[in-house]
Amino acid sequence: MPLRRTAAAVAVALAALAAAPAAQAWSTEDRAGTAGGWLTRQLVGGDHLEIVFDGVAYPDQGLTLDLGFALAAADVARDGVERIGAWVSRPEVMANYLHFDAPERESYAGAHAKLALFASVSGADPADFGGVDLVAGLTALKAPSGRFTDRTAYQDYSNGFTQAFAVLALDRAGGAPRDAVDFLAGGRCPDGGYPLVPAATPCTPHVDATAMAVQALLAADRPDDAAPGLTWLERRQADSGGFAGEDGSAEGNANSTGLAAQALRMGGRTGAADKAVAFLESLQVGCSGPEADRGAFAFDRTGFATGSATRATTQAVLGVAGVGYAALSSVGDRTGAPVVDCAGTPPGSGTTTPTTTGAATTATTTTTASSTPDATTTDAPPATPTTTTEVVAVGGGGTLARTGVAVGPALWLGSLLVVGGALVLALARERHVARGGRR
Known about the structure:
CATH topology: Glycosyltransferase
Signal peptide: 1-25
Number of strands: 8
Distance between the termini: 12 Å
Keywords: Membrane, Signal, Transmembrane, Transmembrane helix
Oligomer: single chain
Protein name: Prenyltransferase/squalene oxidase-like repeat protein
CATH architecture: Alpha/alpha barrel
Transmembrane segments: 410-428
Strand content: 5-15%
Strand order of the largest sheet: 1-7
Structural class: mainly alpha
Organism: Saccharothrix longispora
Helix content: 40-55%
Order of helices and strands: HEEHEEHHHHHHHHHHHEHEEEH
Number of helices: 15
Radius of gyration: 20 Å
């Protein structure tokens, strides 16, 4: 599929949308489940998300994978995860994500790591995903120091997220190299937190990067190295229960809080995790909100904004569901996209009647491209949200999905978006366009 939208491409996309299979929806009070249902309905053509840069829509592979991680955490929309896997394994989509269409000179560690992790989560083989050995490709990008870096003619986008995702992905694929785990553990700042930029001076701890590092270290059976990071996170938690990222908000935001809650749960810091989940609950749109927004999470307590909701929801779900990246799996999950039960039917009662909804919509997010690739943090909302509505709690006071479940040394992504994890490459795209590239 051409990355620049032409009239022909739009026609093809609309035809695919019309042909997309209907998804079965059911009503539930499960918070993670309804968020997963809302996310499924944001998929363009039923299988991916897009980012708008300079007025042009591009496929956003990184955020699409984050959405897939969120669906796995919520135990819903197995069919959605399968569609995402089929889309991202297309040769042209994967080549653009892993190599920016230039494998002879470009190869991105964050993209390899995030996609390899998604392959494992979806039940596929990361050593043979769409005919590509992602494990070998990622391993080839490890420096003698143990750090995973990009091979690029532009700039090295690798960072703390890259290293954490690489350790998580390789741990699930047979074992993370010891030097890679050592490099991650050795980057800890004196106060216990982990930096976004490895080896930077001074060492500046970062909420999102610390949450990711903690999960990766726990997955690699390094609890002693993870413990200072968990303690640092507890000290950074606001009275609201939230965690503030680079935006500096006093109460916190859904992205940073979702990742921190996930890490705290995996590390056995149950009290702090429960407090973070309570903050996340206050950001979810429920029965008093517009029907189209129900189940989604606002970025923060200033209100629901369409432009930041998709990324905020992908990472909030991880904290609410209480499942780490290392334990995420969509295998055996229920298909379909649930909706918020505003009739007060208890979850799991089996008395609700499934309804049919479209499996996909055109893009409802209006994310603006950033000069920071998505392998870093993505905790700031767009400067101009398209719509804002009051944040209201999910009706019925529904229970949280798997809150309090002990997952041992388990840990999950995607997705943050989601975080977290692999690159949007906005700077690279901009330079490519400036050089007369095909985008």
